[in-house]
Amino acid sequence: MTDNGAQAGAAAPLTDTARARLLMACAACDLADLARAAVPVGAHEMNPDGTSREPGAALTDAARVPAAAHRYLEAAAVYERVGGADWRLVGDSRNVSPRATRVRFAPAEAVFRAELRSPDDADGLRAHMLAEPLETALDLDDWVLRHQDSDVGLGTAPVSGGLLPSESVAGPGREKGRPRAARPV
Question: What is the pLDDT of residue 71?
């Protein structure tokens, strides 16, 4: 790693702060997907008499939302900390003391920093995000563009564009929101 948190070489263009922000974007995406899935009312959900066909199913699904919100909040705290915020600033945003904030979020920050050192120790999507951050960012670009409001002009790289140097995501040769060069790890 270099002093600014970027791994040396062209193969790893993201700083630790950018990777933390990407993790936060992934957590936000998961939360949004869970909430969006609860909006449609499927014909299969209710009996003809108006009662639920699967009592408890809605509560089971709804219980996943606070857990996802917790992961999003944790990812936001990690992002702020990796980006240089002290515990006071992180706590102030929640009206919580710096000490309580540290107790609450320091383990998540420690896990993130350990995963940066040893990405193979991460699980699932986190492991993929650490190993293939650009691919993850490009996937999130696609997700945002599929779900954007029509009046919002986010451009073709709403996630990767903010994480990568501008020459990596804009300019001639960019096709379908993808950089021209091979995707770095």
Answer: 96
